[in-house]
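your task:
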Amino acid sequence: MREQLSGLGRLRYYLIPDRIMEVILIQDLHKFGKTGSVIKVKRGFARNFLFPRHLAIPATPNNIKKIEQESKRIVNLHQRQKEKAENLSMRRGGISVTIPVTTHDEDKLYGSIGPEDIIQVLNQDGVVEVDNPKQVILDEPIKSTGVYDVTIKLHPEVSVKIKVWVVKK
């Protein structure tokens, strides 16, 4: 049992060095760090929050070696993905896609064309493989017929511009 601590005693209790441990983050945590970084946290936080949620592992020498090897593998994987995206952007420089839509009153659309619609057309034509709507960058949804420049992020560092032609059916 712990007796009531006051003043300096309470401060010493919370600053005991063995109440702090080092952990390696498995996932990015907003205020703590990125994947693979070694941080110091209180034991209770690690034991009750980080470990059960598989957000971190203890920073033992063996785990540190594993994380270093894993980070090298991930860096190589990201480099290969970037090279693949750059090659694709070089080959697919002037891509254009046509989207036929129904219109009313001159050139106004029924509804609008968003990133999901553009992804569907790109994947259907086999032009570029895009999975996430966040990869398609539109200033605002397309609401009238015409030609629009749309940016597609193939990789965080590589993007390609395509022309989207919106025409009447």
User: Anything to note?
Assistant: The mean pLDDT is 84. The two ends are 79 Å apart (CA to CA).
